[in-house]
Specification:
It is a single chain. This protein is of the alpha/beta class and 315 residues long. The protein has a domain of 177 residues: FAD/NAD(P)-binding domain, CATH 3.50.50.60. It is built from 9 helices and 13 strands. Strands 1, 2, 3, 10, 11, 12 and 13 form a 7-stranded mixed sheet that branches. A two-stranded antiparallel ribbon has the order 4-5.
């Protein structure tokens, strides 16, 4: 039988960017928070330093920072009539399995979604009419606008050390940036990364063809940086070991060097690693979530963690 633990205010399942941000914000608000992470603790100094972090066999071929699909995986089907089959080989879908999640091995590619995404149903209906979308298609507006999210986009960019060039400041198009982006209140916290020869050649060809090339916003610090919470970044070394690797220079915006250490420093936060959540618990009428059941993957022990709030933040 599962060992029942004392109730907490919040259980966070998965401690990557989403879980890390929520852990920081909710502990700051005074709530008792427990984070359950299936992977192990990894740190920049012990695990992502030279020379070991450049082991391409370990990190690229054997997916050391990612979910072990031989042990557990998602299932896939193309329609409800098919039998769902397990995805046993990772491709472009790369869920992480360490503290920090996939934000440890991501490339740093950071876009802002606009109302084109948030109001996709309304935009289709406005352009093509209400009958254009089939009745059985579930496409919907998000119920939130870009204007509402803009301050939070800005806050994240400053937390994650995003480098880039604004293309639309308060409605005024800026040279060198993305002229099609939604309005932003201020510049990126850091200037763009230095372009390599290939990108300079591509940009010149694009401009000659009448297009508008711009540097892609990226959570890779183009220069040494201290974010508003006091987290310190090194400058990008242009080593090329970003995606599928932890950052050897501490230049990549990742939660394990930003929001997670802030939460971990507070007495009302607890991180339990190697904890595989297997069930969401509900009350007798099934209308309210009451906690989770999880297994310690190191010894097989099963626990029940009651909570007032359960946040599913895994990938």
């Amino acid at each position: 039988m599962a060992t029942k633990l004392p109730e907490v205010d919040v259980v966070i399942v998965g401690l990557g960017w989403t879980g890390g941000i929520l852990a920081k914000e909710l502990t700051e608000a005074g709530l008792k928070v427990v984070a359950l992470e299936r992977g192990a603790m990894r740190t920049s100094e012990n695990d992502y330093a030279l020379p070991n972090i450049r082991d391409e066999l370990r990190y690229v071929v054997r997916h050391d920072l990612m979910q072990n699909t031989a042990r557990d995986t998602i299932t896939v089907r193309n329609n409800p009539q098919q039998e769902a089959l397990p995805m046993r080989k990772l491709g472009s879908f790369l869920p992480g399995e360490v503290v920090g999640g996939s934000a440890v091995h991501w490339s740093g590619h950071t876009w802002r979604w606009t109302d084109m995404e948030f109001k996709v149903r309304s935009n289709y209906e406005e352009r093509y009419g209400k009958k254009f979308i089939p009745d059985d298609m579930t496409i919907q507006d998000w119920g939130i606008s870009y204007a509402e999210l803009e301050p939070y986009y800005d806050k994240f960019e400053r937390t994650a050390a995003v480098s880039g060039k604004a293309g639309n400041l308060a409605g005024k198009i800026q040279d060198g940036g993305n002229p099609f982006e939604a309005p932003r209140e201020r510049e990126y916290p850091l200037p763009p990364l230095t372009p390599i020869l290939a990108s300079e050649m591509f940009s010149e060809a694009a401009r000659n063809a009448g297009y508008h090339p711009f540097p892609r916003p990226s959570a890779n610090a183009s220069e040494p940086y201290t974010n508003p919470d006091g987290s310190k970044f090194g400058a990008c070394q242009y080593c090329g070991y970003c995606q599928r690797f932890g950052c050897e220079a501490n230049a990549k915006g990742s939660p394990h060097i930003t929001v997670i250490p802030i939460a971990m420093a507070r007495p009302n936060f607890e991180l339990r690693t190697n904890s595989w959540v297997t069930r969401i618990l509900k009350d007798s009428d099934g209308k309210r979530v009451t906690g989770v059941t999880y297994t310690n993957i190191l010894n097989g022990e099963e626990f029940e963690q009651p909570a007032s709030i359960v946040l599913l933040c895994a990938y």
